[in-house]
Amino acid sequence: MMTVMLIDDDVPMLDYVKFLLEQPGLELEHVASASGSGAALELFHEHLPDLAIVDIGLPGMDGLELAEAFRLMKPEVRLIFLTCYEDFHYSKRAIQLEADDYLIKDELTPEQLKTSILKAMDRFGERRALLERYSFQQAIERNRGVLKRNFLNQLLSGSGKWDHIRLLGERLGISWRKPFLVHGFLHIDAASLLSRYRYEDAPLLHFAAGNIASELSAGPEPITALMDGENGIYLLWNAEDPAAPRDGLIRYMETVCEKAEQYLKVTVRGFYAPEAFPVRDFARAYKQLAERRDHGFYDPPGPAVMLKPDQDYRSAPESKPGKEKSMLTLAIEEENAAWINLAVGKLQQHAGDERWSPRLLKEACADCVRSMASETNGAVEEAFFHHLSRALHVEEAAQLTKRELRKLWRRQSLTPISEREKDTRLQAIDDYLRQHADRMITSVDMAEHLYLNPSYFSRYFKRLSGMKFTDYVNRFKVDMAISMLRRENETVENVAYTLGFSDRAYFSKVFKKYSGKSPSEFKNA
C-alpha cells in the first residue's frame, strides 16, 4: 500500500483532502499531515512517504522548495501540488520536479484528485521497479560471481522451484531458450601457471580466466560461463538438437585458450561431455561430467577435448616406483638434478604404458615428493598437493612433480659459493643438461635455448669452459653413467638407453674416452 503525506497551511483544506483520500479505489495509507514547512520536513524524514500532496503557497519555505528537500531525502517520492491560482512560473518548476499534477484548489473535485493520485501511483510503481532493477544491476556488477555461484548451487540442489531458478538466471543475463545443454569446463594447467606465477596467485588467475570466458560468452554462440569451485570455469552450451555438431562450443574453447595464453601467459584446456542433456536434468549431467574429469589424462592435450564415457585404467601398478625413488636419492647424493627428470620421466612412462589410473599416478608422484622432503628435511606447500590432485593430464602432473622436487633439491644441494663461482650462462647450460639428460644435446640445441647464434655460441663456450661443447656434454653424461654403474643390478644397456645413447657400442666408446675404462671394465672392477 502506498503511503501519503499532506502539507497545507489551510487546515480546512487539509481535512478536505484527507476526506477525499478515503474514496473507493485508492489504496493509500495516510501517515502524516503538516501545516508548516519545519514540521513537514521533520515528519517527512520520520515517515518517508511515497506520495506528498503539497500546497505551493506555504509561508517561509514554499511548497516547491519543500518538495526539492523531499526529493533529496527520497528521490522516488511522487508529488502533487495544490495552488490557489494558475501561475506559469510555479507550473514550470513543478514540471522540473517531475510532479504528477498541478491542481487548482477551487476547482478540485474527488474525480480529479483520484485521477492524479492513480497517475502518481502508476509512476511510483514504475520508478520503484526501475530503481529495484538498477539496484539489482549494481549488486550484479559487484557480486556477479557470487550470484552466479548461487545460481549454479540452486541448479545442483534441485531444492528451488524451476521457475524461480530460471528467473534468477534471466536477471543474471542467462537465458536458455533451447531444450538441451552440453556441459563442459575450462581448466588452467597448473604447471604452466606456476612457471610464471606463485601458488597464491592461482585464485586471481582463475578469476581473470573466468572474466575472459564470460566476455567471450557474449558472442554469437549460446554459451554460459560460470565460476565453479569444483570444476574451475563451468560451461553450458544451449542446443536445439542433442545431436547438433559441437563446432560452436569447440571454437569458443579454442578462442578462450588463445586469449588466456595471449593475456595471462597460461595454458587453458577445454573439456566437454559427448552427450547433451535436457536443461532440467542439470544435476545428473553435472555429476556425470565430474566423474569423467580425468578421462583424457593420457590423450593428446588440446584446447577442446571430448571426455569419453569409459576409460580402462589399472587400479594397481605392476611394479612399485622403487627404482624412481633411488634415482631421487642419487640426485641428492650426487648433487645432480638430472636424476629428478629421469625419475619422473620413468614414472610417467610406466603409468602410460600400463594405463595407471590418474589417481594412482598422482599418489606415486606425491609419494616421491614426500620421500625427497623427508631425505632433505624440507617442507612442501600444501598447495602443491592440491594442484597435483586437480591435474587433468599426465604431463601436467609430471611437470608439477618435477618442479617441487627441484625446489627440494636446490635447498639441499646448491650452496651459495658454488652458485657465485659459476657464470650465469654456464649455470643455464648446466640446468638445461640436467633437465634433458635422456637426450643427446648438440651445440645447436643449446644455442637455440639461449637465443644465441650457433657459431657464436661455439666460440663463446670454448672461451668460457676451455673445451668444446661436445666434450662438456660427454663428460657430464659419463659422470652420470659412473654413478649409475655403481648400483649392483644396473646393466650397461640400461645406462646407455637412459642417458640417450643410440647403442651400447657408441656409449662404450665415449665412456672409455673420458674415464679410461670401458663400462664393463668399470662395472667389474
UniProtKB/TrEMBL annotation:
<keyword id="KW-0597">Phosphoprotein</keyword>
<dbReference type="InterPro" id="IPR009057">
    <property type="entry name" value="Homeodomain-like_sf"/>
</dbReference>
<dbReference type="GO" id="GO:0000160">
    <property type="term" value="P:phosphorelay signal transduction system"/>
</dbReference>
<dbReference type="InterPro" id="IPR020449">
    <property type="entry name" value="Tscrpt_reg_AraC-type_HTH"/>
</dbReference>
<dbReference type="InterPro" id="IPR001789">
    <property type="entry name" value="Sig_transdc_resp-reg_receiver"/>
</dbReference>
<dbReference type="InterPro" id="IPR018060">
    <property type="entry name" value="HTH_AraC"/>
</dbReference>
<keyword id="KW-0805">Transcription regulation</keyword>
<keyword id="KW-0804">Transcription</keyword>
<protein>
    <recommendedName>
        <fullName>AraC family transcriptional regulator</fullName>
    </recommendedName>
</protein>
<dbReference type="InterPro" id="IPR018062">
    <property type="entry name" value="HTH_AraC-typ_CS"/>
</dbReference>
<dbReference type="InterPro" id="IPR011006">
    <property type="entry name" value="CheY-like_superfamily"/>
</dbReference>
<feature type="domain" description="Response regulatory">
    <location>
        <begin position="3"/>
        <end position="120"/>
    </location>
</feature>
<dbReference type="GO" id="GO:0003700">
    <property type="term" value="F:DNA-binding transcription factor activity"/>
</dbReference>
<dbReference type="GO" id="GO:0043565">
    <property type="term" value="F:sequence-specific DNA binding"/>
</dbReference>
<feature type="modified residue" description="4-aspartylphosphate">
    <location>
        <position position="55"/>
    </location>
</feature>
<dbReference type="Pfam" id="PF00072">
    <property type="entry name" value="Response_reg"/>
</dbReference>
<dbReference type="Pfam" id="PF12833">
    <property type="entry name" value="HTH_18"/>
</dbReference>
<keyword id="KW-0238">DNA-binding</keyword>
<feature type="domain" description="HTH araC/xylS-type">
    <location>
        <begin position="427"/>
        <end position="525"/>
    </location>
</feature>
